[in-house]
Amino acid sequence: MYALLLFGGPVSVNHIGGGLTVGTRETFVKLKAWPRIGILVNQLRRLLDVQLARCVEDGSTLAMGGKNPVIQAMLSLLTNDGLSA
After folding, report:
1. How far from the centroid of its chain's Cα atoms is residue 73's Cα?
2. Mind listing the UniProt keywords for this protein, alphabetically (predicted)?
3. 5-43 pLDDT, tens per residue?
4. Considering the entire predicted model, what is its pTM?
């Protein structure tokens, strides 16, 4: 589920009716989820985008493992499917 949310395309949040839409107008998947899940996933994706852009500008590599909280959060979501370890 979180792999789809993190890497499946744009995530749109339906704040009134609840639920999320992943993908584009032509190809999409609708999911039942609390709106806050979509908001948090979008923010996590933005944080990763900023870090990747910084790495491209600096010519550096992205710190993996316990050194990078964004990567740790993404790995935890993917490994445990959103459940606490």
Report:
1. 9
2. ATP-binding, Helicase, Hydrolase, Nucleotide-binding
3. 999 999 999 999 889 999 998 999 999 999 999 999 999
4. 0.83
